Amino acid sequence: MMPEFPPAFPLLLCLAVLLIFGFGFNKLVEWVNSRRAWPVSFSVVIGVAVTIAVPTLFFWNYELHFWQASTVCLFSFIASGSPMIFGNVLRETQKSHKRRRLPTSAMIVRDDVVMELKMTIDKIVEKEAEVVEVVHTLHEVIGSLKSL
User: Fold this and answer.
1) 38: which DSSP letter?
2) Contact 28, 88 (CB under 8 A)
3) Using one digit for the tens of pLDDT, what is the confidence trace for 9-33?
4) What Å distances lie between residue 90 and 26, 77, 93, CA to CA?
5) What kind and span of H or E run contains 26?
6) What is the number of alpha carbons within 13 Å of residue 135 lying toward its C-beta?
7) Which residues contact 113 (CB under 8 A, 6 or more apart)?
8) Considering the entire predicted model, what is its pTM?
Protein backbone atom coordinates (compact mmCIF):
# COMPACT_ATOMS: atom_id res chain seq x y z
CA MET A 1 0.00 0.00 0.00
CA MET A 2 1.28 3.44 -0.93
CA PRO A 3 1.66 6.20 1.66
CA GLU A 4 -0.84 9.05 1.87
CA PHE A 5 -0.13 12.59 0.70
CA PRO A 6 3.50 13.50 1.33
CA PRO A 7 4.50 15.32 4.47
CA ALA A 8 5.57 18.93 4.24
CA PHE A 9 9.33 18.25 4.21
CA PRO A 10 9.50 16.46 0.81
CA LEU A 11 7.20 19.08 -0.69
CA LEU A 12 9.32 21.95 0.62
CA LEU A 13 12.49 20.19 -0.49
CA CYS A 14 11.04 19.70 -3.97
CA LEU A 15 10.06 23.37 -4.20
CA ALA A 16 13.49 24.46 -2.95
CA VAL A 17 15.18 22.32 -5.61
CA LEU A 18 12.94 23.85 -8.28
CA LEU A 19 13.60 27.38 -7.02
CA ILE A 20 17.36 26.78 -7.19
CA PHE A 21 16.89 25.27 -10.65
CA GLY A 22 14.92 28.37 -11.70
CA PHE A 23 17.72 30.73 -10.69
CA GLY A 24 20.42 28.56 -12.26
CA PHE A 25 18.50 27.96 -15.47
CA ASN A 26 17.79 31.69 -15.74
CA LYS A 27 21.53 32.36 -15.68
CA LEU A 28 22.09 29.64 -18.28
CA VAL A 29 19.40 31.09 -20.55
CA GLU A 30 20.93 34.56 -20.17
CA TRP A 31 24.32 33.18 -21.22
CA VAL A 32 22.84 31.17 -24.10
CA ASN A 33 20.80 34.13 -25.38
CA SER A 34 23.84 36.39 -25.38
CA ARG A 35 25.60 33.88 -27.66
CA ARG A 36 22.47 32.85 -29.59
CA ALA A 37 23.37 29.20 -29.06
CA TRP A 38 19.84 27.83 -29.28
CA PRO A 39 16.34 29.22 -29.80
CA VAL A 40 14.19 30.42 -26.92
CA SER A 41 11.66 27.64 -27.52
CA PHE A 42 14.35 25.08 -26.70
CA SER A 43 14.90 26.80 -23.34
CA VAL A 44 11.17 26.66 -22.63
CA VAL A 45 11.01 22.93 -23.44
CA ILE A 46 13.93 22.19 -21.10
CA GLY A 47 12.44 24.32 -18.32
CA VAL A 48 9.03 22.66 -18.54
CA ALA A 49 10.52 19.16 -18.75
CA VAL A 50 12.63 19.66 -15.62
CA THR A 51 9.74 21.31 -13.79
CA ILE A 52 7.59 18.25 -14.45
CA ALA A 53 10.35 15.69 -13.84
CA VAL A 54 11.45 16.93 -10.40
CA PRO A 55 8.10 16.54 -8.58
CA THR A 56 7.53 13.28 -10.43
CA LEU A 57 10.77 11.92 -9.00
CA PHE A 58 10.09 13.32 -5.53
CA PHE A 59 6.56 11.90 -5.28
CA TRP A 60 6.96 8.68 -7.25
CA ASN A 61 6.01 6.50 -4.26
CA TYR A 62 3.04 8.59 -3.17
CA GLU A 63 -0.51 8.06 -4.27
CA LEU A 64 -1.89 11.52 -4.99
CA HIS A 65 -5.41 12.55 -5.81
CA PHE A 66 -5.87 14.71 -8.86
CA TRP A 67 -6.23 17.92 -6.86
CA GLN A 68 -3.09 17.11 -4.85
CA ALA A 69 -1.05 16.40 -7.97
CA SER A 70 -2.41 19.57 -9.58
CA THR A 71 -1.45 21.62 -6.54
CA VAL A 72 2.05 20.15 -6.50
CA CYS A 73 2.42 20.95 -10.23
CA LEU A 74 1.12 24.47 -9.75
CA PHE A 75 3.56 25.21 -6.94
CA SER A 76 6.35 23.54 -8.91
CA PHE A 77 5.77 25.83 -11.88
CA ILE A 78 5.58 28.85 -9.59
CA ALA A 79 8.83 27.89 -7.85
CA SER A 80 10.81 27.25 -11.03
CA GLY A 81 9.15 29.82 -13.28
CA SER A 82 9.25 32.90 -11.05
CA PRO A 83 13.04 33.41 -11.24
CA MET A 84 12.95 32.78 -14.99
CA ILE A 85 10.13 35.28 -15.57
CA PHE A 86 11.82 37.86 -13.38
CA GLY A 87 15.13 37.35 -15.23
CA ASN A 88 13.45 37.66 -18.62
CA VAL A 89 11.76 40.91 -17.60
CA LEU A 90 15.11 42.29 -16.41
CA ARG A 91 16.83 41.28 -19.67
CA GLU A 92 14.13 42.88 -21.80
CA THR A 93 14.21 46.06 -19.69
CA GLN A 94 17.98 46.30 -20.09
CA LYS A 95 17.65 45.77 -23.85
CA SER A 96 15.09 48.56 -24.14
CA HIS A 97 17.33 50.95 -22.17
CA LYS A 98 20.24 50.17 -24.48
CA ARG A 99 18.25 51.27 -27.52
CA ARG A 100 18.93 54.94 -27.92
CA ARG A 101 16.69 57.53 -29.43
CA LEU A 102 17.62 59.37 -32.57
CA PRO A 103 19.36 62.66 -31.87
CA THR A 104 17.25 65.74 -32.49
CA SER A 105 19.14 66.67 -35.65
CA ALA A 106 18.53 63.21 -37.11
CA MET A 107 14.82 63.48 -36.36
CA ILE A 108 14.69 66.86 -38.12
CA VAL A 109 16.43 65.44 -41.21
CA ARG A 110 14.08 62.44 -41.14
CA ASP A 111 11.04 64.72 -41.00
CA ASP A 112 12.39 66.88 -43.85
CA VAL A 113 13.00 63.79 -45.99
CA VAL A 114 9.51 62.46 -45.33
CA MET A 115 7.94 65.82 -46.24
CA GLU A 116 10.06 66.10 -49.42
CA LEU A 117 9.07 62.57 -50.49
CA LYS A 118 5.41 63.27 -49.76
CA MET A 119 5.47 66.44 -51.88
CA THR A 120 7.21 64.57 -54.70
CA ILE A 121 4.67 61.75 -54.58
CA ASP A 122 1.83 64.30 -54.66
CA LYS A 123 3.37 65.92 -57.76
CA ILE A 124 3.72 62.51 -59.44
CA VAL A 125 0.10 61.64 -58.66
CA GLU A 126 -1.09 64.97 -60.05
CA LYS A 127 1.19 64.47 -63.08
CA GLU A 128 2.91 67.80 -62.47
CA ALA A 129 6.41 66.38 -61.99
CA GLU A 130 8.89 65.49 -64.68
CA VAL A 131 11.21 62.51 -64.43
CA VAL A 132 14.28 64.76 -64.13
CA GLU A 133 12.75 66.63 -61.20
CA VAL A 134 11.82 63.38 -59.41
CA VAL A 135 15.31 61.94 -59.89
CA HIS A 136 16.87 65.18 -58.60
CA THR A 137 14.63 65.11 -55.51
CA LEU A 138 15.49 61.47 -54.82
CA HIS A 139 19.23 62.25 -55.05
CA GLU A 140 18.78 65.09 -52.56
CA VAL A 141 16.88 62.78 -50.19
CA ILE A 142 19.57 60.10 -50.44
CA GLY A 143 22.24 62.72 -49.75
CA SER A 144 20.35 63.92 -46.68
CA LEU A 145 20.03 60.39 -45.38
CA LYS A 146 23.70 59.64 -45.99
CA SER A 147 24.66 62.71 -43.97
CA LEU A 148 23.22 61.06 -40.89
Assistant:
1) S
2) no
3) 889 999 999 999 999 999 999 999 8
4) 11, 19, 5
5) helix 8-35
6) 3
7) 141, 144, 145
8) 0.62
